[in-house]
Amino acid sequence: MIVIIDSSKNQSIAAYLKKLWCYRNLILIFAYRNIQGKIAQTRLGIFIILLQAIILTLVFGFFISRFITFLVSYPYLLFAVTGMMAWYIFSYIATFSGTSIMQNRQIASKIYFPRIILPFSYGLSVLLDFTGWLIVLTALLIYYGIMPSYNFWAFFLFLIIDVITGLAVGLWIALLSIKNRDVALFAPLIIGIGMFFTPVFYPVKVLPEYLADILYFNPLACVVEGFRWSLFNSPFDIRFLWGFLIILLLFITSVFFFVKKDGNMADNI
Questions:
Q1: How far apart are CA 46 and CA 261, in angstroms?
Q2: How far is the C-alpha of 57 from the C-alpha of 63, rounded, in Å?
Q3: Domain residue spans in the chain?
Q4: Residue 23, SS3?
Q5: DSSP code, position 150
């Protein structure tokens, strides 16, 4: 197959997506590189990812469940782990995809390829981390003797929404950090604070009504509550889908502006 390299600074979305399809194998290469960079210099190798999920479950799950008790219809540890899993996937993608352009500026400024591949690769490499969390969650389900609900089919649908949310935020961080490097420095802090505005460790019902109404526009609240609904058939308010519509708009606009800026990106990084 012959690929014609055209780094035109004014290219259509359709032409860019066609070019992206031609370079699709490069996403796999960068995703593998991301994983190798994470497990390099570790004796446990790939098992470090599983160990990370176990440690976070022990530290946050058991610690919080020991001192804070919320009334839910299933073990609180399962409640907390599903929230932590959804948040970890989002924060990993948003943080690393947001810094991917600047971290790889030596490659991105000298070799032409659709640079959106760099942040997109983290949306793929996070699936290994998701597998680690899924193993921990499965072990807890077996321990508590709980079978997933008949809504389990929607679990992977909400996973896709989680990945899209991380990429939408990450792409905007990447775009803004090209103009202002401080954005990439403060982004992880802001993302971390956002966890307290997401029902990771607390149920929505404990909030006052006016705060719960605001939460419906939080895309991560949609994912967290969707995970719990699909696994444990816990209540899911359809108004959480407002958050999905917001993140879908952010994702589309982030891709649009990224494509428009890609042609000039090499001159600015």
A1: 36
A2: 9
A3: 51-268
A4: coil
A5: G
| Average pLDDT score over residue span 192-218 | 88
Q: Residue 20's CB: how many other CB atoms inside 10 A?
A: 17
Give 164-203 pLDDT, tens digit per residue.
999 999 999 998 888 887 787 888 888 888 888 899 988 8
Q: Where are the alpha helices (DSSP H) in the chain?
A: 13-22, 24-39, 47-56, 63-67, 76-98, 100-103, 105-108, 117-144, 155-179, 182-194, 209-215, 219-232, 241-268
Cα separation, 61 vs 258, in Å, equals 38
* 144 within 8 A of 226, measured Cβ to Cβ: no
Query: Six-digit token pair at 89?
Result: 């996937």
Question: 3-class SS at 102?
Answer: helix
User: Cβ–Cβ contacts within 10 Å for residue 185, how many?
Assistant: 11
Give 7-38 pLDDT, tens digit per residue: 555 677 888 888 888 888 999 999 988 888 77
Structure-token pair, residue 227: 């995970």
**76/202 Cα distance (integer angstroms):** 10
3-state secondary structure of 8: coil
Radius of gyration of the chain (CA): 20
CA distances to 15, 161, 191 from 87, rounded to whole Å, are 34, 12, 10
Q: Is the pTM of this model over 0.85?
A: yes
Q: Which two tokens stand for residue 241?
A: 């889908």
Question: Tokens 């929404």, residue?
Answer: 161
Confirm if 141 and 78 have CB atoms less than 8 A apart: yes
